[in-house]
Fold each of these.
Amino acid sequence: MLDDAGALRFAAERNAQGLRLKALGRFNAARAEYGRALAAIQASPTRHRQAEAALCHNLGGIEFALGRYCQAESFARLGLALRREDPSSLPSEIAADLNALAAILEALGRLPDAEAMYCEALAALEDIRATDPQKGDGDRLRGDIQQQLMTLSSIVPVAAPDREKGERPNP
């Protein structure tokens, strides 16, 4: 068993290797490296929520790339929960996790849930802008989320009118 410093160092090395392998398109090998890093962090005597959340985010992305959406959703939800538990989490990190979860939900066909997650991510980014207008955190992500919301709004079915209440369809 590694001490805290050793576990963090090992996890950082495995994570870096995972990123390199992912960039090369070697997703299964990247998944294995991220898994080793996560196991080391989880076995560490101290809970390192930020590192664990980042690794869950990366594992969720790999599972998504491999088309394993249910596994991706599990990792994304765990990573998001860890970020929300940790008061040192940045709003931009939480927004990135919400955005990733939204993309997974969209791929699963759960479009209303995806739209809600995109909106929550956008709200988190707007909080950054409201507290510090000069801060550019999340500007690119904000644009990506806005684009996804526009796309979803053309896909998500509009609720049918309730004829018993006298509602009429919009032409």
Note: The chain has two domains: 1-89, 91-156.
Amino acid sequence: MRPTTMMVRECARARGDDDATTRRDATRRDEGSMVTMSVDASVDESVDAGGRRTRPSARRGNDDARPSARDGDDVEAPRGSTSAVDDDERDLSVAERLCATQLGVSYDKRDRPWLEHGEACLLATGQLYPLCAVATGMRTANISLCGYMELVPNIVGAAYFVGVAGTVASCVWGTLRATRAEPHRALKAARFAAGMTPAVTLAGTFVFPRCMWNVHQTCVVWWAWSALFAMVFEWVADSKFVARRARCGERVVTSDVVLPQLTYVIGFAITLKFYYTNSSDFFRGEILSANSFSWWCLSKHRAGTFAGRSKARTYTWRELFLVDGLYAALMMCVYRFNQYHGCGGTWGTF
């Protein structure tokens, strides 16, 4: 029992020493604060014209310390107030929030002139081509986008070539931005391959006509599956699990768009179901999947989509019809050339 009693006494003595040290420190702090207060009081006192010592009032000191809005400086708002942006987001309905997230850059341009809506114009041209192709009344052996392209006049085909060229250019643009922002080497190469494959095969689909069956169908199949793989890969590569392991939680592509991927899968499933029927059902599924892929590529134009890039892509009617229109004209010339020399067809009429 003796060692235990000694240990208890030593612990009590240590606690007593600690308490005494704490009391001495507190006394020293009190003395120091009193000295500081006395010094401040002597400094604050001033001498007036009559030789009397005066002390500035506390009210005036508080007024001097308070920031004034008369000088044009920004005054911090009270904690209870909210900004106008928060009020606008809070006032959005469910439909408006859905449009803001899924329409993306087109919703951001809703207050701008219609000439600046390059993305909406591109999607409109994609819808215009099948409507005009069916309205011409031409009968084709294959009811599809490619089947009508061999028969329609060039002025009708130009509408779809502009949409295809714009989609390919947007896919390449988004792929290069995502590849540049990816720090992981393996994922950088995977992003480049996943993005460039559907862009190249989509261009090949409308460079080689359907009459050149082997190469044309190879491009079609590769585009359909590679586009689906690119959408899934982007979702996996920017998931929380992969981002936490490869990039310390940072995402390369930040996008809340999900409707284009969903509609693409629906259109892709329709084309698989009616692939051997040569019916209008396959035609509808093909239109849905093609426009959904364009929608998905154009959604990358929105500001803040890629890491390290806060600005949106400038894409107006000029970029669509002048820049991408030039690519479309070149693709159409190659398409008609292959149709004329490779299949014994015609150059097409205007």
Note: The longest helix spans residues 2-44.
Amino acid sequence: MAVKAKKHIATKTASSMMGRKVIAQLLGEHGNALLGALKTASSRHQGDKRGKELKQNILILSLKANILWEDGQIKQKQLMKMVNPLNDTTLKLHDVLHSTKNSTMALDLLAAKMDNLKDLTGEILAPLMSEKNLAIYEDVAKYYSSKEFLMLLIENSEYDKEKQIVREAIGALVQPLLNKYGLEKKEDDFCDLKDCEEGIVDFQGSSFCGKHHFDMHQELVGGAPSLIHFLTNPVGKKSTVFKEISKAHFPSNSTKFFIAVENYKVCRVAVRYLFAEGMFENFLGSAANKKKVDVDAEIIKAVHVELKKHSSKPVTEFKSVEEMRRSIRQNAPTAPSIDLFNDAQAYVLKQMETVFDEQFVKTGKWTEYLDHIKLPAHQTPDQKE
């Protein structure tokens, strides 16, 4: 049956009395108690209609997510990234529920952790659900993770009964939740290549599964010696021989700058200007000290000129708070191009490549390295397919 059809059935199931009874059996005693407590609390807070709506939407979303998991659209590797935040948030919730003192700071921290968990879950569901269902998820998650609801549940004596039920249910549900799909494995146990869910091969501290480690090695053997491999590849980064050579012979801070540029290229647009400004100040600007890199003065000047085009403009005079806010928004810094540091990075890379060729390639260390990371015969994947 198509996933879309299954998800449609999930909606119908969660909307019927018989369906809800079946789901309740699947949730078990503690899960059902937790859901009931949340429904009662939200009904008291925003009315019975709203409470029923939230409960039904939780059931619908749970069934849809379970279908996506069973059909392999939610990957185990994605769930691995949820383990630590889920552990962290649940422990914080447990602490707050059992605390005898009301703490605004603790509540703020819990709300922040729950909001982060909401966003992480949303990132997994976004490509797999319709806009309508994502809106339902956002509504449910935003409500229950809000500081307003948490304060009612934790600090308002009218909600003591629900608080006690949630406290007991959380304690009983945490461990089974983490172990349900073998989540005792760590994220680091899986291949570092995106979308690959195979376990890493037990060889030389590799970060890849056997197939992708083999493919990486074949590509290196068939190509020219690669400095980039040691700067960006998780296997290359672990080479102690390369680290020793780069530390002893590379221009100061060159590897740090190269990697910083790579990180800049993938940072969020919202923080790109601040990232770029920090990089310029730390690596290129006249005030740079400990992290200063050797780059041609004309390249530095060009970066500075381009960066200034995106900086915040002086806030003009204003007659009201609204005018002030509008002026700040209109004059806020804008995101520079991801290519802003390309020339500087190329300049630094060329300096490193000269040293790499002299100290690593011509000395035979590149060939030795290839032999060092070659999988032994018993771990080499079958290439017949």
Note: The chain has a mean pLDDT of 81.
